[in-house]
Amino acid sequence: MNFELEPAHLGWQRRVREFCEREVAVRARENDEKGVFPWDLVPGLRRLGLLGIIFPKEYGGLGLDTASLCLALEELGRADAAVALTVESHNGLCTNHLFLHGSEAQRRRYLPRLCGGEALGAWALTEPAAGSDAASLKTRAVFDGKSWTLNGSKTFTTQGSVAGVYVIFAQTSAKDNGSGKDGLTAFVFEKGHPGLQVGKIEHKMGIRCSDTAQLHLVDCKASPEQVVGTPGRGFRDAMKVLDAGRVAISGISVGIARAAVEEGIKWVKPRKADYGILPGQAGLTAAGRTLAQLASEVDAARLLTLRAAWLMDSGRPFSREASMAKLISGDLAMRAPTEILDVIGPAGASLDHPVQRFFRDAKLYQIGEGSSQIQQLVISRQLLAEDVPAAEPSAAAR
Ligand SMILES: Cc1cc2nc3c(=O)[nH]c(=O)nc-3n(C[C@H](O)[C@H](O)[C@H](O)COP(=O)(O)OP(=O)(O)OC[C@H]3O[C@@H](n4cnc5c(N)ncnc54)[C@H](O)[C@@H]3O)c2cc1C
Question: What ligand 1 atom has the least distance to the C-alpha of 122?
Fold first, then answer.
């Protein structure tokens, strides 16, 4: 057993934290109020390698491990959870899909541009009538022997209006009603491709400067070279990408919860006398108990996240542990600002105080990349399918 981060992890964490404090956190309020994509932060993200953290150097990435990705996302989540979502979805969804499932030609064509920040990536699975049940999506792609034609709409696509590279899913089964898990295929498109249209840009209550848009595919042609992976395997490939994405996105949730606890400590410390938690006083007040409980849970969520990252990098099964990390950290990201708002009182609800932003930002982290209910479903299915005691600690022990 070893709970220590490597010196390289610590150095990386420090560099990302310094960057976040210097360039991201100081602008978070302004970016939240404006609610437009912060292009001026992109050169800094690019310089630090944050747009290609886990990809091999031969494709222009930093070649770091998943723990490094989670540590960076915790720092970004602490500074601005909207900017963190840009980095997470760019790395963890679009770029990772092309890395894991793309041909060598596709990797060589797209990864250097994505890792180098020349283009941002978007990954469009969700549709107006297909989110949790992704297998039922309605966008269709029909092959005429030479090329594919796609028709349909995507919704809530992160980087939908600002991306340079898109991975988009469609049904390619001949059956009219779609064919579920065996009928999805992923396609790669570049910005401006004829028939790929950007629709409504969402005005959201939280993560407001993260770009979220609808996409419309109108007789959109794709060559066979634009198919990513094997036709019909898109659903399974997407689930693999989402398993890894859940580990990464957990890092952001830990960062939001940590930021809330830090704000709580900042508020309570100078008011200790009022709260009755001066040394020597008997019993803890509600504020002290809240801080103690949440600080402990932030540690627990981080450990779950890093365990899932370690399993992933060790090449072991990690799907259940990824869902556990996302479930616990996503719910904590929502609860920590909620409870810290209770501690701070009305001042915390003022737009002058950052904790109300954490509260608004956090909700997405219970929804995106599989809601908390879907994580419970994934975990319970595995618990009930496995011939092992439910209390067994983790796959890591096997
Ligand atoms: C800001 C934002 C950014 C996003 N970015 C992307 C992106 O980049 N790419 C992308 O493809 N998608 C993206 N999404 C979509 C997101 O992944 C979906 O919203 C999410 O998967 C839930 O799907 P849904 O919205 O269709 O809800 P639904 O699937 O309709 O679910 C509605 C509710 O029912 C619950 N539910 C559904 N099925 C079950 C079940 N079987 N058991 C128990 N409860 C259930 C859900 O937990 C949820 O509470 C984004 C969403 C948001 C809000």
Answer: 8
